[in-house]
Amino acid sequence: MKHRTLSRVLAPALSTALLISGAAFAAEGSDFEWPRLLVIGTAGTSSASFASTNGWTPILQKQTGTVVRAVPEDNESMRYRRLTDRRDIAISSVSAAEMRFQIEGIGGYATTKPVPQRVLWHHNDTPWGYVVAGDSELKSLQDLKKGGYRVAKGMFSPPMIAAVTGALPAFIGLSEEEAEKTIKYVPASSYAENCRSVVEGKADVAYCAPVSSVLSEMEGAPGGIRWLPLNQDNQEGWDGYLQHRPMLIPTKIELGVSTARGVDGATSNFVYSVPADTDEDFAYHMAKWFHESYDAYKGSHPMAARMSLEQFRAYLDRTPLPIHEGTVKYLREIGAWTEQDDAWNEAAKTKMDQWVKARQAAMEEAAKAGVKADFQNQAFLDILDKHTQGLEGFRSRL
Fold it and tell me: Which residues form the signal peptide (predicted)?
């Protein structure tokens, strides 16, 4: 039986230093050998992403013998680099919205190495909304148009920036230019800092997920917190909002802190992603484990309960992101994959490859022309726009 190492799973670029501890263990009734060490990258320690991943990783370790580590990396760009370039994490918990920014090279991702990714499994359907302090004079998002209010701006994540500088103004009927004059944006260097800003008096509004542990902490703070709804009956507002955050889905919040439940917000699906060249056998057995061990880990965290095959299957009906071949192989085996799925998945892979190829060409042209690859360098952005012009962007298949 051929010995499988983590470097085979992650790709040759991974440092062999990661392989010095542990030993490979064979899955019961299978020739597959799990990697000696399996590193899962998540958002920071205050996130539901980190907490729920920590719920199932000890169970995987106990059942397979592989050493599993959930590593918090709050900087989204850095976590992307660790997954696709440094290759010192094998799997990343990432929002579908963030993956769109990564693939299309939006904002700070414009100069990152373009690497095709694949969805390994569905992580959760995270609700998001706009939170204020309990004693805030703001009663609706429309009140922001009065001017003078501070909105937290999560500099660690391009989609978080887009949510407050593009989507939010569009929802209330302001252009981005008008918003810059009307709203004061307060930079935040981490997710926890972004959310806490409203109870610490640093900002009036923050874009947060009510399932995060930091929101429970904030709900218990003096004065508590409230949520300003993204009213679902505001069709014009939502049309504008989705222009900036096309991977989101309007929803009524049902998960998370009690103050958010019943409030109109948005759902952002989180997935476990891997580079497209991740070993097919590894992806197959991870998908198999996620499904067959669901009953063992579903009670470890509320978000872990969203990792069922049923939730994944529902997500497959609307995701524009390609699924890894190992996962497809397993889903096909158990009758959870159709010919229709083959069609849209192949189209999704083609679209992603087109974006990667175009961005690579842009970087090569910039290098030859001596143009600095910087997302704040307009000369570089012009080259990038030239190569990506006409490409269809990723958008939820609603």
Answer: 1-26
Beta strands in the chain (DSSP E): 37-42, 67-72, 91-95, 117-133, 150-154, 184-188, 206-208, 225-228, 249-252, 264-275
CA distance 166 to 62: 45
Q: Are strands 225-228 and 117-133 parallel, antiparallel or unpaired?
A: antiparallel
Residue 346 Ramachandran class (φ > 0 left, ψ -120 to 50 alpha, else beta): alpha
pTM: 0.79
Strand partners, 125: 269
Cα(first)–Cα(last) distance of the chain, in Å? 45
Are 53 and 70 contacting, i.e. CB atoms less than 8 angstroms apart?
yes
DSSP 8-class letter at 385: H
Q: Which H or E run contains 179?
A: helix 176-182
Confidence check: pLDDT of 2 > 50: no
C-alpha to C-alpha distance for 40 and 94, rounded to whole angstroms: 11
Cα-based distances in Å from 19 to 11, 129, 170, 190, 387? 13, 41, 49, 31, 40
Give residue 214's Cα distance to chain centre: 18
What are phi and psi for residue 6, nearest 5 degrees? -65, -30
User: How far is residue 11's CA from residue 115's CA, in Å, rounded to a whole number?
Assistant: 13
Q: Give the model confidence (pLDDT) of 187-230 as tens digits.
A: 999 999 999 999 999 999 999 999 998 999 999 999 999 999 99
Name which of 161, 134, 128 is nearest 48 in CA terms. 128
Tell me how far apart the alpha carbons of residues 234 and 171 are, in angstroms, rounded to a whole number: 8
- Write the single-letter amino acid at 26: A
Question: Residue 211 has what DSSP assignment?
Answer: T
Count helices and strands in the chain by DSSP H and E runs: 16, 10
* Both tokens assigned to 205: 């509004």
User: Which residue is listed with tokens 């087109």?
Assistant: 354
Beta bridge partner(s), residue 151? 185, 205
Q: Which helix (H) or strand (E) segment is 161 a member of?
A: helix 158-162
The chain-wide mean pLDDT, for the chain, equals 91
Report which of 163, 195, 45, 39 is spatially closest to residue 98, judged by C-alpha positions.
163
Phi, psi (rounded to 5 degrees) for 355: -65, -45
Residues composing the chain: 398
Is residue 226 within 8 Å of 132, Cβ to Cβ?
yes
